[in-house]
Amino acid sequence: MSDLWFKGLDDLELVEGALRLCAQVDPSVNATWVELQLEKMLDEAEQELARESNEKARFDALLRLFYQQWGFKGDYENYFSSENAFIEKVLQRKKGIPVSLGALLLFLGRKLGFPIKGVSFPTQFLLVVEWPHMKHDYVNPFNGEYVAKHTLQSWLKGAEGNSAMLKPEHLQVADTSTIIGRWLGVLKGALMREERYTQALACSDLALSLVPEDPYEIRDRGFIYQQLDCFQIARKDYEFFIENCPEDPAAEILKLQLKAINDEPVVLH
């Protein structure tokens, strides 16, 4: 698979890039319906925010509209479901994860003229509103609440240990292609957990079209091929990983997998 799907992503809104990704993984995605829903939401938001003149009040009104009136919320119960990474499903269910809910809010916010951008924070996707001549506001798109820097520091320590310190690079604005790269990994992981291996393979192929010899991606692809009973291709991928990452603890496990594969009958595909 070529990397043409990745071209021009940085010229797209994040939600548009995500829609392109989802359509590559699942061709049944109804992109036209998604686009119409986005237009409808934007029209309604423009009418709702027309009542406010102060920019911060307008932004607060957008948050209320999105999370309270429309009822979008973080999916606490099934956080790792692939439905939270497919934009079409997020719009239908009004549930998602930080990056998918954030992509929708980012789209609306930018179209409405707010200085809002996406941040690929180590623990989750964040939104930042870069108010001119005022301090930045950080928003957790999982619940629409403002997040103080001391809270972000706590998140970082929880993920990386008590010695972790919040640094400017943690809060740098990320381009669409960077975020979509992480989104692709989230989607692939969810599909693998759900044993939807054909779609997971599509994710792996997309990732390898960008970094063709990433040993960890090739290892994951080998696992997917093994689940699809494509044992000969799985063997080659596992051998590639073992050769390129011999010190990785997974290499020893894969050697056992290779032995199991060698005991399997040959299946022609």
From TrEMBL:
Signal peptide: none annotated. It comes from the Bacteria. Residues 34-184 form the Protein SirB1 N-terminal domain. Keywords: Coiled coil. Residues 35-62 form a coiled coil. InterPro entries: SirB1_N (IPR032698), TPR-like_helical_dom_sf (IPR011990). The keyword Coiled coil applies. The keyword DNA-binding does not apply. SUPFAM superfamilies: TPR-like (SSF48452). PANTHER family: F-BOX ONLY PROTEIN 21, SI:DKEY-261L7.2. Belongs to the UPF0162 family. This is Protein SirB1 N-terminal domain-containing protein. It comes from Vibrio ezurae NBRC 102218.
